[in-house]
Amino acid sequence: MRDSLKDQTAQGTGETWTLLRLLRWMTDYFAEKGVDNPRLDAELLLAHVLKLDRVGLYLNYDRPLVATELDTIRPLVKRRGQREPLQYLLGLTEFWSLEFKVTPDVLIPRADTEILVEEALARAGSEGQLLDVGTGSGAIVISLATERPGWQMTGLDISSTALEIARENVEKNRVENQVQLVHGDLAELPAQQYDLIVSNPPYIAQREWDELMPEVRCFEPQLALLAKNDGLECYQQLATQATSRLKTGGWLLVEIGYQQAEAVKKILAAAGLVNVFVRDDYSAQPRVVGGQK
Question: Are 88 and 79 in contact (CB under 8 A)?
Fold first, then answer.
């Protein structure tokens, strides 16, 4: 836009910044900056600052904003315009109808990853042991724990800062008695046997990096995104260990990237897993590959 919010408020035109006026300005500004869903992002950001829900915004369209509110919203608008993810600005996101704290130390959980949760639940009885490899914010393991209270679950991550976020989310969602968090590398999984191993591992190849959206490329942790061997290294490491870490009949379930389904199927089958399958997401894109010991 020709003027920033700071410029416009500094001009002292005498015009009042009502909630609706600011919402429209933010929507146009975000659209110019290439933000997806600019109106929704404007509503969520403004609701966060004003401590309202979206219905509250609609009921207060004519309310004037005071200077302190404008001072608070201004830097957040600028950061979103620079394509910093909305979830990091809010410090929270929703996954599996649960609330999770997120910071730039962890990947933002995506709705597509709920397919992995669905597939795990379809194979989880009333009791068992589960390992979530590369747990990040803990979204997957915590979501599963809330659905299967009889299971004991472990979240593994190489990042100690990510584990601190996961620990807060475990407490927030009250699954401390079920979920243990462990610092470690997926190249050497805990020497234990599990009924289920699940993972949304790094799977972006270096050649794909420049094609990623700015929100991902510039702000989310590379450690949780990039993988060697054309994005397949982590699948190879997980499949190699699966037969010694799974109980007989246990499953390895992994989220995959674009056009990786056939390659990952072959990796799991070559490692000796059987009943290998691919599950599409709700956009008809292959999303999860699994195999059984």
Answer: no
Q: Which residue has the tokens 């299967």?
A: 148
* Distance, CA of 293 to chain centre: 28
Three-state secondary-structure class, residue 280: strand
DSSP for residue 256? -
Q: Specify which residues 278 forms β-bridges with.
A: 289
Please indicate, yes or no, whether the overall pTM of this predicted structure exceeds 0.85: yes
Residue 72 main-chain phi, psi, to 5 deg: -75, -40
Q: Give the bridge partners for 167, in sequence order.
A: none
DSSP secondary structure letter of residue 91 = T
Q: Which residue, 121, 122, 145, 141, is CA-closest to 133?
A: 141
The Cα–Cα gap between 129 and 200 comes to 18
Residue 59: its H or E element:
helix 54-59
Cβ 259 vs Cβ 252: under 8 Å? no
Phi-psi region of 117 (alpha: psi -120 to 50; beta: other; left: phi over 0): alpha
User: Of all helices (H) and strands (E), which one includes residue 95?
Assistant: strand 92-95
CA–CA dist 277, 196 (Å, integer): 15
The helix/strand/coil state of 136 is: coil
Place of tokens 């659209």: 31
The pLDDT tens digits for 198-228 are: 999 999 988 889 889 999 999 999 999 988 9
Question: Which domains does the chain possess?
Answer: 5-82 (1.10.8.10), 95-292 (3.40.50.150)
Closest by CA position to 232, among listed 190, 261, 273, 192? 261
3-state secondary structure of 218: coil
